[in-house]
# Entry
Amino acid sequence: MPSRVSTRPSSPKLGERDDVNGLETWDDPIPRRSQWTVQDLCDAFVAGSKHHLSLIPQPPPREERARRRQERERSFLLNVALRKYATQNNIQHSELELVEVKARNYVFECPRAYLHYNILVRCPDGTHTVFFAEVDPERAGEEDVHLCIPLQDADANNNGPCFSCKHRARGLMHPTGAAYLGGHMETNFLDFELPDSSDDEYI
# Structure
């Protein structure tokens, strides 16, 4: 029967490599104190961690994220809402111009969520009218626009039966006779905010 031959590589001789001088080896198994202290290892770990974190892209400041969110809402959610209103009223969408977002509130009623808006719109006759819009915050199709109509004089300073806006956006006006979906539940209105999807690239 053939004898077994060890394939374990031999360790370097003491003194062959500078980084093993003074350490335990196969030929010299007497343990000796390492030149590295615990503090040295801690410092090396901290330095390595800082270097790793420096390679991760940092999210933009809060103000920039808010600006991006508002621009995204103007470009998608609110223009879709105006397009649906124009279609329902036989108006060319290009004749309606979103001028300003005057008020905004995120309405959370588990498991549903809504966005309520007051927006200033330039109408085809050149006048400026405040609209109320209720949209789904997570989608951007016309079917996700629950309501988009101009407010009447009687709606001024009217929170309607919207408990969320009553607690969190007192200046946001609601239509008196129109059926919007969110805000009719008296719940514990915490400071919920719409997640900013622009942060996804920084996760």
